[in-house]
Amino acid sequence: MPYVRAHIWAFSFGMAGLLVARVFEAMIPMYIKMGIDSLTEDKPGLDLDSTATQDALFYPAMAIILCVISQMLVTIVSRILIRRIGMYAAFDLRNRIYHHLQLQGPGFFQQYSIGDLMARAINDISLVRQVIAGSTRMTMVLIFTATVGLMFMFSLSLQLTLAVLIPMPIISIVAYKYSKKIYDQSHLVQEGFSDLSTFVQENLNGIRTVQAMAQEKEEVGRFAEVNQQFADRNLHLFETTSMLSALMPALAAAATVIIIGYGATLVSAGDITLGTFVAFFSYLGLLLWPVREVGPLVTQWQRGASGTARLFEILDHAPEISNHPAPQYPELTGRVEVQNLSYKYENKDKFALKNVNFTVEPGETIAILGRVGSGKSTLLRLFVRLLEPTSGQILLDEHPIDGFPLNTLRDQVCLVLQDPFLFADSLGDNIAYDNTDRESDEIWKSADAAALRDTIEDFPEGLKTILGERGVTLSGGQKQRTALARGLVRMSPLLILDDCFSAVDTQTEEHILSGLKRVRRNLTTMLVSHRVSTARHADRIIVLSEGEMVEMGSHKELLAKGGFYADLEKAQSNASRLLADLETPDD
Ligand code: ADP
Ligand code: MG
Cα–Cα distance between 409 and 388 in angstroms, integer? Predict the structure, then answer.
């Protein structure tokens, strides 16, 4: 309703037009009656050469032509009006869903797959549009037609009209019974469509893995199963709707039988004229047309209803992270305070982060080091509120982060993710993703700091090079450095890098780290790594193990302490010495 209400005037106009068109249509049998009766009562006979017959038929014939033309014109205008509203409503709904999806947190995307969301945003919206533009219009047309038809019938003969209505309760009960079944079955069909869409989406995303593992045949087989299930559900729905569509005309035929039998008796008894009897048949057509259309209409409505339910399930899903429309905060200096921070994933028993405390001063570079699974990424996600802490809090310049409007927070704290995502756009626009108006010197400066200049210059089109979907035209390390440049270009008071050097060799890494220090001299940077060679350049190092902070200090301090960090340093430098030996075999 709200989506239609925005266009209520055009909608009412369209509906009124439909009503007027029905009235024109309903007037036609009246003129037929007039013609027949004038021939039979005044007895000029059916001699078409006689002027008396011609005069008697001229007026009704002209009136019928006028009615047909008027009905046609009004119907065309009304239809266009109502279809446009359906289109606009779908347009608004699509925008709203898209906006709503942008606000959702990780829990939501864990619950709904991309394929499912795409199916809802495309298929279900189109079902809703059909209801607004098609089924609503058709239902209104049918209600008007039946009402107008009934009114004329009552005016012609009360007895005959009442007799015609006898089968109607049975028709209503049958239609009601079937509509419930159709709703359930179309819900299954739409879910099946979501499954299909999810399957195709995942398969195509992973197509390189599928081919590398030679799983094409198996994937085709798995797809066939999902496809078969979708087809079966459709078949069930077809069976039900066909049954209903066939039953309705059969029940309607009963009314025709009543008119032939009872109507003929009334004519021979002289209760009604022959003209009335003929006109009655035309009106019966108006009354029974809706009955015949009940099958397809109920189907459309129920599919639309189930589509609506699926859309509103998404729209009613409140974003997990509450957004404070708080006043604007001043520019941050980049001071960070982490207090008793703990986090537990819903589907895990163990805490991913346990009671972490530390402070970072403005301009410091902090390395966070720990084995895979030690909670580094979890800690960083808490900083931009991709997750909400189970307990404890994070302060930026004395302000708890949940007091910031989300946009402000994410503007001031820039997180570069571990698995970078690049858009199918130009290299330059990928770096300047947050603001495509950036000057090219700004972009080059951050590209230099991220050791990306050579890569860009290798492409004949430079920054204008269009990347494939998800950046398939770049190597893993190039993708990471592009994402890093995207983070650097913002010059935010707090930059957080989640393992951005894992696919970069040690030499390039050194180069990047020195570039980073140069570009972000007075700005706070936190970087995650599992390599001592990265961490040693930081002002301070925080060591995480199983979600707990076990050590904190400078490279020298931690080496002197001889704990986890020192052990790791020893292990990694041994490993790199071994590697170096392999590369330069001495014979
Ligand atoms: P790191 O980045 O140090 O490798 P993470 O922070 O990614 O570690 O993970 C810490 C722990 O939390 C791991 O045990 C991991 O399995 C778990 N974990 C990470 N993400 C999720 C998630 N979405 N749901 C459940 N557990 C998770
Ligand atoms: Mg990680």
Answer: 14
List of the chain residues with pLDDT < 50: 587
Candidates 391, 401, 394, 384; CA nearest to 342 is 391
CA-closest candidate to residue 550, choices 371, 349, 286: 371
Atom of ligand 1 nearest to the CA of 371: 3
Residue type, 374: S
- Decide if 432 contacts 472 (C-beta within 8 A): no
| Entry pTM | 0.73
Q: Which of 354, 377, 383, 530 to mutate to test the pocket of ligand 1 (most atoms within 8 A of CB)?
A: 377
Residue 175 near residue 248 (C-beta atoms within 8 A): yes
* Tokens describing residue 414: 């820039």
Residue intervals of the chain classified under CATH 3.40.50.300 are: 336-583
Q: Hey, what's the torsion of the CAs at 126, 127, 129, 134, to 10 degrees?
A: 130
For tokens 């020298």, name the residue: 556
Instruction: Give the pLDDT score at 338.
Output: 92
Total Cβ atoms within 10 A of residue 434: 14
Q: What topology is assigned to 2-315 in CATH?
A: ABC transporter transmembrane region fold (1.20.1560)
Ligand 1 and 529: CB distance under 6 A: no
Structure tokens at 104: 């959702």
Give the list of residues 6+ apart from residue 248 with CB closer than 8 angstroms, or none: 171, 174, 175, 291, 292, 293, 294, 295
Dist. CA 520–CA 7, nearest whole Å: 53
Dist CA 339 CA 356 (whole Å) = 7
Closest CA to 438 of 425, 453, 428, 427: 428
**Residue 587: what pLDDT?**
46
d(CA 103, CA 120) in angstroms, rounded, equals 17
Task: Classify residue 81 by its DSSP letter.
Answer: H
Which ligand 1 atom lies nearest to the CA of residue 530? 3
Side-chain half-sphere exposure of 321, counting CA atoms within 13 A: 29
> According to the model, what pLDDT value does residue 233 have?
95
> May I ask the CATH architecture of the domain 336-583?
3-Layer(aba) Sandwich (3.40)
Give the list of residues 6+ apart from residue 263 with CB closer than 8 angstroms, or none: 160, 272, 277, 280
Pocket flag, ligand 1, residue 347 (CB < 6 Å):
yes
Tell the residue number behind the tokens 């409140």, with chain if given: 318
**pLDDT value, residue 5:** 85
The tokens describing 218, both together, are 């198996």
Name the amino acid, one letter, at 164.
Answer: V
Ranges of beta strands (E only) in 1-123 are none
Q: Is the CB of 374 under 6 A from ligand 1?
A: yes
Domain with CATH 1.20.1560.10 in the chain: 2-315
CA of 497 to the centre of ligand 2 (A): 10
Q: Radius of gyration of the chain from Cα atoms?
A: 37
What six digits make up the tokens of 329?
């905060």
Judged by its nearest atom, the ligand closest to the C-alpha of residue 371 is: 1
